[in-house]
Amino acid sequence: DGGITQSPKYLFRKEGQNVTLSCEQNLNHDAMYWYRQDPGQGLRLIYYSQIVNDFQKGDIAEGYSVSREKKESFPLTVTSAQKNPTAFYLCASSGGPTQYFGPGTRLLVL
Amino acid sequence: QKEVEQDPGPLSVPEGAIVSLNCTYSNSAFQYFMWYRQYSRKGPELLMYTYSSGNKEDGRFTAQVDKSSKYISLFIRDSQPSDSATYLCAISRTGANSKLTFGKGITLSVRP
What we know:
The complex is a heterodimer.
Chain A: E1 4-7, E2 10-13, E3 19-25, E4 31-38, E5 42-51, E6 54-57, E7 64-66, E8 76-78, E9 87-94, E10 100-101, E11 105-109
Parallel strand pairs in A: 2-11
Antiparallel strand pairs in A: 1-3, 3-8, 4-5, 4-9, 5-6, 7-8, 9-10, 9-11
Chain B: E1 4-6, E2 11-14, E3 19-25, E4 32-38, E5 45-51, E6 54-58, E7 61-66, E8 71-76, E9 85-92, E10 101-102, E11 106-111
Parallel strand pairs in B: 2-11
Antiparallel strand pairs in B: 1-3, 3-8, 4-5, 4-9, 6-7, 7-8, 9-10, 9-11
């Protein structure tokens, strides 16, 4: 089955800890995206990558980092600098005008 | 002014009702218009996609774009309880692999 997978489904972060969210796609899409969703806020773009080994900051990149070493993978690290990380994180990919989303990772702070 | 504004909701309708969901946008450069449906605790799924002005129909769903008014709509006919979800409009300026700008979403509840 073609699609986007995200893991883990739930992630708990301790104060001062960096955590990494996984995103993998087998749709052969060039572009990949990370969004953060908070209640009542809609989707906000964190980072995006239109090609391997290249990525750009979105609207709320502070406290986050990414890498794009492979076409299929676009992991997101939530660093200790992100003071309010509790949210639903969504990964997406696109090969045209539309984007396709993964199932999401819910990050909670202990 | 925000680039895209969506009616805030929530919206509750009886089963079988016709539902109208709406967004407005501010920049005439936007050319691609999408509607996503998101069930609770799930990722959004693409429901409808249109380019430029006009209507597009898919089963009980119709997407309508009026570029002169900068207004997009999603109509749901014969609404079902399974349509209960959050609906997000999304717009982009260019075609392939471009950034999307999302509305905040409206939560629809269809009562049996």
